[in-house]
Design a protein that fits this description.
mainly alpha; two-stranded parallel ribbon; 7 helices; 2 strands
C-alpha cells in the first residue's frame, strides 16, 4: 500500500482510540467485519469514501480530523448566495469543507486523478420548510 494509505491507517487507529470506541463498534458502524476493519487500521485495506464518512460520524469528528487535510479550509474558494444570515453561510461553508475533504482523501488514495481544475464550488441553500 502507498505511504498515504499507511499514514491514514495510523490516523484512523489514533482517532478510534481517542474516541474510546472498539474495533467491533466501528466495524459495525461502517458495515464491515471486525477482521476487515483491523486490516484498515493495519494499512492493508484502504477505506472507501462512504466508509470514511461513516467512520467520522461514529467517532464524532470531521473527516479532516482523520485524514489530516485541515489545509482544505485554506484552499477553499467559493461563492454563495444566502438570505443574508450568517448561519446560512456557515452551514454552506461546512458542507463545502466536507466535500473538499472527501475530494482530497479520494485523490490521496488514487481514486481521483491527482491533477485537476482548481477546486471552486458554488452552493446555494434550499429553502427550509
Amino acid at each position: 500500500m502507498s505511504e498515504y494509505v499507511q499514514a491514514l491507517a495510523t490516523q484512523v487507529k489514533h482517532a478510534r482510540e481517542a474516541a474510546g470506541v472498539s474495533q467491533e463498534d466501528v466495524a459495525l458502524a461502517i458495515g464491515v467485519s471486525q477482521p476487515t476493519y483491523s486490516r484498515i487500521e493495519q494499512g492493508s485495506r484502504p477505506l472507501k469514501g462512504d466508509e470514511l464518512i461513516l467512520l467520522a460520524d461514529r467517532l464524532g469528528v470531521r473527516v479532516a480530523a482523520i485524514t489530516g487535510v485541515l489545509r482544505v479550509r485554506e484552499q477553499a474558494r467559493f461563492a454563495a448566495r444566502t438570505d443574508g444570515t450568517s448561519s446560512a453561510m456557515a452551514a454552506m461553508r461546512e458542507r463545502l469543507y466536507a466535500y473538499l475533504e472527501l475530494d482530497d482523501y479520494l485523490r490521496g488514495i488514487g481514486l481521483l486523478p491527482a491533477q485537476g481544475p482548481a477546486r471552486t464550488a458554488v452552493l446555494t441553500p434550499q429553502p427550509v420548510g
